[in-house]
């Protein structure tokens, strides 16, 4: 009986076990089938978003375009919003970086096919069952890439849990289309390291001022540590946290066998040493050039309705550029394989420019040293405690107020207030009410309390400048300085700004005279001259000096000393209309009045136009246009566009020799003599100074056998200038910039420019009028400088 009971109990237990196992396996099978159905639905896009195969094979990556100097330095990147990502290949990655990433994020990366089931099971047990927060992640690098590419930010933990299965499916598909190296590279190119550093290449530059292939072990570990949480392990804001995380990465590398214990321990003792490079388009080398290049390449086809009524000249210039300049509007003129325009901000272009980073640095230093450190303090001193400051003493207080209010009406603040419906009285009150603001200084921005109108007046105290340097044979622009500081003075005085050029126009007049049969040795009496204009009015130019008045001189002397009477004499023998035609052949595009006073530089010309025009004096009478870019490549390194010099014959080679001898005389014995005396440059060179009426503009154009460079200096408005000629003339305002720059260039042997370089001038032209034009020793010029 007892045995029967025991048998019944055993039989019942087996029956229950059988039922339990049946239920378990049934549920298991159903679960597997359900999972299979779910993953099938996910794979086919029925649940959640599943990118099409075409997109998986070619993910929509947005890469910043890179701009390089002629000597191989990265000048800037153009990117959209915060997507400052530059593509890098796997072979451009540091081996230490790859090892650090694998050791920390996915040690079995080479062994799985997108999902690491061992790591996933460990994460589930520790997180779900054991409730451990530090259980480690179960996501592979491929899953993290899938998340980067296709997963939006989840609003809560449940939404994130639903996203996981979708990422698993995408990860498996990615593994089918890409090699392990490609997946790892895509991940590194996509990750956001903060501070507009998206992708490993930009991050290497921003945090360590290096490239991905040059990252050392500790730098690689620091950046790898940011993958867990870039904000929390930010090495700039939280160096202690970052150091702890870096050392953990180093430990992981040791555990994985990538580092030995001794190396690991020694590296962990090192501090984190950053070389932070801020990503800001207003800072860094050549900001004016970078802005010009961006605007030029993205310019749309000119349409008159998009220009203001007073922008006729700008519309004409842009229309001409669209037809003749391949760089102007490049992004719209050139098409991708799919027929769409290139996008400078997301297509990962590589733009190779003519700028030399060393020469650009020297040019910016020269402008700063002369304007900020020398001329500006003198200007502040002259205008100190003057009611009319920063304007000339020729203006009344009412005239100054009128000019300032005109500037206020041109400001963005005024336009916003006007658009809001404020009356003129209300707007004036806003502009005269002090508020907290930042104002510029050469020692950094200053926090202060000032009215907007006073801030306009304050910033107008700062003198402006421009400088550009070109190769006269191919037009390569080596240095481009559009102003004293891009922030806040963004107006570009190389390509955009136009100012009266004064006596720097005279070599063009003398060129026309040489073409018409004149000679540098032709005699002329240095005396006042009066010409009758077409309107029947008398025009009598004045001279600033009284040298050799009433005596016989020659044309060579007239140009060397910038004599206005000699220029007027030549104009009387030629024609204002012919001179306009000659200026057009020199590449001058702006408005030109065919009047006698044109020979003294009353017209407004850009600095770039002037430097381009002066290249003809070195290049045998052939002018070359400024060239900024040599080639453009796509993201795969394929050359899309090559650029070639644009050259125009202006005058004969014989005239070129004559002009070179006369321009040399300007430096050796004329208004540019302080190049020799004060700055000690003995090189073979020529040049021309220029000072406009009331000393509003100071110019200097200089030519050497291998470089043509030009400098301009002045105030923002024409009525802002020095009150005395001593400080306001071109030889004092602009010439020193050129001299400082050339001394720096000559001192750098890596550039290939030497003071032993010389012009090729045939023997008959070397000693015109029996006077040698060769460079002279400084001692022979003593006393001349004192008169200038």
Please provide a written account of the structure.
The protein has 788 residues and is of the alpha+beta class. The chain has 30 helices and 20 strands. It has a 5-stranded mixed β-sheet, with no helix packed on it. It has a 5-stranded antiparallel β-sheet with strand order 7-6-20-19-18, sandwiched between helices. Strand 15 and strand 16 (639-642) form a beta hairpin. The longest helix is centred in the first third of the chain and has 42 residues, at 2-43.
Task: Chart the SSEs and their pairings.
Layout: H1 2-43, H2 53-57, E1 65-68, E2 74-78, H3 95-105, H4 117-129, H5 141-150, H6 157-177, H7 180-190, H8 200-208, H9 217-225, H10 239-255, H11 261-268, H12 287-297, H13 312-324, H14 330-333, E3 350-353, H15 357-383, H16 397-409, H17 412-419, H18 424-432, E4 435-439, E5 446-450, H19 452-459, E6 464-470, E7 477-481, E8 499-500, H20 506-515, E9 523-525, E10 531-532, E11 538-539, E12 552-554, H21 555-560, H22 564-573, H23 576-585, E13 604-605, H24 607-614, E14 622-624, E15 629-633, E16 639-642, E17 647-649, H25 653-669, H26 674-677, E18 686-691, E19 697-703, E20 708-714, H27 725-728, H28 730-733, H29 735-747, H30 763-766
Parallel strand pairs: 1-3
Antiparallel strand pairs: 1-2, 3-15, 4-5, 6-7, 6-20, 8-13, 9-12, 10-11, 14-17, 15-16, 18-19, 19-20
Helix pairs in contact: 3-9, 3-10, 5-6, 5-7, 9-10, 10-11, 15-29, 16-19, 20-25
Comma- or semicolon-separated keywords:
about 800 residues; alpha+beta; five-stranded mixed sheet; five-stranded antiparallel sheet; 30 helices; about 45% helix; disordered C terminus
